[in-house]
Amino acid sequence: MPQEAAPALHVRGVSKSFPTPEGGEVHALDNVSLSVADGSFMVLLGPSGCGKTTLLRCIAGLESPDAGEILLRGERIDGIPVWKRRVNTVFQSYALFPHMTVAQNIAFGLQMDKLPKEEVTHKVQAALSLVRLSDLGARRPNQLSGGQQQRVALARALAKQPEVLLLDEPLSALDLKLRRGMQLELKRLQQETHITFILVTHDQDEAMSMGDEVAVFDSGRIVQVGPPREVYLRPRTRFVADFIGEANILDISVAAGTASAAGIGPIPMDMWSGDAPPLTDAQHFAAVRPEDVTVSPDASGRFTVLDATFIGGDLHAVVDLGTHTLTSRQPAADAAGMCSGDRCEVSFRPGSLRVVEA
Amino acid sequence: MAQSTRVRGAKPGQGSWWAGLPGIAYLVLLVLAPLVVILIYSFLSRAKLGVGVKWEFTLQPYVDLFYSESLSGARSFDPTYVQIFLNSVIYSLITAVVCLIMAIPIALWIATRSPRWRMLLVFLVTIPFWTSLLIRTYAFVIILNDNGPINEALQGLGIVSAPISMLYTPFATIVGLVYSFLPFMILPIYASAERFDFRLAEAAYDLGATKLTVLRRIVLPAVRPGIIAGFILVFIPALGSFLAPELLGGGKTSMIANVIAAQFGASRNWPFGAALSVMVLVIVMLALVVFVAVARRTARRGSGQSMESLL
Amino acid sequence: MTSPRGTGTSLKNFPLFGPITAIVFAFLYVPLLFVIGYSFNSNRIVTVWKGFTFDWYVEVMGNDDIQRAVINSLRIAAISTILSVILATGLAIGLLRMVRVGRTAAWSLIMAPLVIPEIVFAIGTLALFVQIRFTLGVDSITLAHTAFCIPFALLPIRARLRSVDLSIYEAAADLGANEWTIFRRITLPLLAPGIVAGALLAFIISLDDFIVSYFLAGAGGTTLPVYIFGMIRNAITPGVNALSTLLLLASVVIVTISYVIAIRKR
User: N or C terminus of chain C: which is more exposed, having fewer CB within 10 Å?
Assistant: First the structure.
């Protein structure tokens, strides 16, 4: 996707370490750079403790980076205190002020900008109707459901019309059903307001369904950035392949121009994805999605089925490769009657294997 | 706009440690400084006239704790003050033990009520603590009086023919001390008992234990931290009590506090009063050290509660 | 719960604990009831009941010395409450941001007035004031009361402060509030119930104090408890009971309000 618009936010070489109780240091962010296009929905994805929330807090001004620069529309903001930055945050715990009504909560940020009274009232109403809570302005936060509190937190941040809205795992406290609804709601809000959203999550489904772009974090570094589909189809590293969707990781060795997978044997050239990096005479890892693996019953096959589970119309099979295992997901019809202990052969869909970095 | 300064207040709104400085300074001036003055005074000489001290170093106040001088100047061992210290410690220990015996049943009984009742009952236990100690002590001046309600009742029932003298005895002092500090024993034991999982008692019954065995072998060990905390919370203030011995003991059963008060009042011997105070502080410190040691040992045995949480 | 409620309850009960509890509660309250009851006795001899009267209340309320003592007590309690609450609020905030060593030291200092025997604290303060030639009276009592009111004011404020979700402050800063605005519009309102509860407790502690006031009263600093002590020493009349009843009433009412605030706002 070409990005002609200037980036709303630019993070350049940001690092941040925290002292550990044992006296050591953890590198929460290690030389992280990221560019977020204006009006886009960026998702920071990664397991807990990978640094994604730290980056969000550095952008908000709640943490100060040890090194690097953060630019908002081309201007450095990393020296500006949190209360002066034109970015706002939706907190994981919502952080609604318990002693204020919903309307007062939303008005708070506007009053900090010293807006005239009528304008505050007007904007509070607009924000409430944006999140469809127009009738609840007089309630206290503790009189609202979790989903409603979430909307108030959103309205409170959006009312200030920030340059960038930061969302820190905003849906993690909601139950599954509500979460689906709120995902659509967030997407709608982002499209209606044209505000740049940066959302932190550890839930890959959430990242895939909401983000225009996904930045995948692994131990303090961004390992891949791109549109969700792109990241799914073309994982750059073993970690990305494994974290986004499921993947089988194969050990590949190359000898005399032929690539072999440990436990399987030579891999024909047409199995490799066309745009994958070229193979050299070295150790490699290859990723293949379970749905690209076919397990066929074969009495004289080289492998043993460890487990075969039929879920709906699908067969989920686990095959013993000696040192490790291979998982497949295929239509049940292809392998009717297969059970664990059976002998089998495996094959890959052409163009489905990708070389990934360790 | 490049700025090299780091963002101030990385933890916004949580304030700073210096918010506590005025309070600390105040306490240094009005809690620590008085103790230092006492310590200094205890090494100074007695003022010839009026209040205060004479700025002349001496160990005389500490010598006076153990020895007295006759008019001829001969120095001999005088057990008066040692005896008073001993009395104070004994009274305080008796007080703590009596409080303990009363507190265990009531603490356990409250802990086994429903949460609503528990709140109310605990509140009822705390109310006396928040009322004036003077008035609570005065109440027993009335009750233990020769023609007070107890003697009236005993005579009315024909149990005794003449009033029993209860007021101005060691008995009256101890009753007053128990009454003053009983809530301090009940509350920590209750706090321990409330956290006790009574399913453990059910398991013990299931294994064939009788009520007495369950109480002795399951419940009491579990509330041990509360008992230790309660013991110290009663013992320390009892040791420094002024009002109960003053109003109920009637001068016949002086405790340390009354002797100290006398040095700063009628006797006008401030250095000696200061030395007595230092001794009281030493005893309190020793009691605390013993308490912490016992509490640590209990904690290590795995009763599983921190003592700090009870204090 | 697996066991039926009835069985569980009876197994939890130990024989005699109920009656002993009743006796202990009687022990805690009956003496105070006697104080109150005899305040309506028309006989000059407190413990010999003659008839019902309000005369003693009329008499003590009309007494100039008592009025002065009451005014002294209220003034001391009010000022030391305000001072101790301000200092305790600062301490509560400061304690959370102190490093471990500093916090332990500060905590020992704050709690010291509760551990040091009151008589030692009283004569120590007396010696200090005499040493620096500070005139004894209402002011000296106020200063000393503030010191031992601080721990009582601190506990509910600290409990309240610790219950606040830290991201609330971050949210306020994120929405554009600076440190002072956060303190004024977020921290203080959130602490308000704790501050009120702490203030009420500090007020009672000051109002009821006898020993420190007794030693620091000087010429013009007689407080109500000091006056009552003098009455008890001289001649016990139902007037003492009437005054005591009023003081008891004040304490009970204030502590009840504090308790209600504490549980309602949790």
Answer: N
Interface confidence, given as ipTM, is 0.90
Same structural domain, A326 and A227: no
CB atoms C175 and A109 under 8 Å: yes
A164 and A284 part of one domain: no
* Pair (A51, A172) in one structural domain: yes
Distance from C-alpha of A49 to C-alpha of A69, rounded to nearest angstrom: 22
With contacts defined as CB-CB under 8 Å, which chain C residues touch B179? 27-28, 31
The mean per-residue pLDDT over the stretch A146-162 comes to 94
DSSP label of C38:
H
Closest Cβ–Cβ partner in C110, C166, C186 for B27: C110
Q: In which domain, by residue range, is A136 found? A: 7-239
Residue B75 distance to chain C (closest CA, Å): 29
| Series of mean pLDDT values for 10-residue runs along chain C (266 residues) | 43 79 94 94 85 91 93 97 97 90 91 91 95 93 96 93 92 93 94 93 95 92 95 87 94 91 68
Q: Are the Cβ atoms of C27 and B130 closer than 8 angstroms?
A: no
Nearest to C96 by CA among C171, C185, C161: C161
Å from B226 to nearest chain A CA? 31
Is A137 inside a domain boundary? Answer: yes
Say whether residue A113 is in contact with chain C using an 8 A CB cutoff. yes
3-state secondary structure of A212: coil
Residues in C 162-191 with any Cβ partner in B closer than 8 A: 166, 168-170, 172-173, 177, 179, 182-183, 186-187
Please list, in sequence order, all residues whose beta carbon lies within 8 angstroms of the beta carbon of residue C5, skipping any fewer than 6 positions away.
Answer: none
Which fold would CATH assign to domain C64-264? MetI-like fold (1.10.3720)
Separation CA C68–CA C61 (nearest Å): 11
Task: Please tell us whether the domain made up of B33-310 is placed in CATH 1.10.3720.10.
Answer: yes
pLDDT at residue A5, as a whole number: 57
d(CA B217, CA B194): 17
For residue A201, give the CATH number of its domain. Answer: 3.40.50.300
